[in-house]
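Morning!

As promised:
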Amino acid sequence: SYELTQPHSVSVSPGQTASITCSGDKLGNKYASWYQQKPGQSPVLVIYQDNKRPSGIPERFSGSNSGNTATLTISGTQAMDEADYYCQAWDNNTHVVFGGGTKLTVL
Amino acid sequence: QLVASGGGLVQPGGSLRLSCAASAFTFSSYWMSWVRQAPGKGLEWVANIKQDGSEKYYVDFVKGRFTISRDNAKNSLYLQMNSLRAEDTAVYYCARVNSVEYDYWGQGTLVTVSS
């Protein structure tokens, strides 16, 4: 079955750029989506179809996807961005796969 | 727009039926999914269902035990869970599939399997 791999944790200083990677076999041939989840809350879509932002998501969130790696980039990271982030893709257009999640710490 | 309900405490081997009420969008136009999250763990896809219910897909470890269904007339999504195990303990979210992403999520309903 298809697998997506994320780092367990990423740390960033306020105002700096955070990059969270998501690796999977030929992931660049699929669309990757990213979700932000804060404690006790439902996930929120922050990037879809590799690099599109839903309305209401700040411009500091961006995404890319090429080869075997999709990347979520947060520019000018703010304290409010501290959360768990999950990548997601489809396998064979029928099954959905999530990465294991990355805890972003802003310190 | 998505309100999940039906969670609770159930004994191992027992059954539970989750519901998800949709509003403010044309429910019958979208694939829908159930996604779960065990305590302190990551998101885990459980099942998908096509707009008319003609196609259903499941993650391997729930096949034969869980059944996803929908009632478009009632704008509702369901998950019938049988033969529940301790490892099925999780918050269960319903989510709307828009193209290839989940653009709306319910608030989740907690299922606890314990004796």
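The beta strands of chain A are 9-12, 18-23, 33-37, 44-47, 61-66, 69-74, 83-91, 95-98, 102-106.

Hope this helps with the figure draft.
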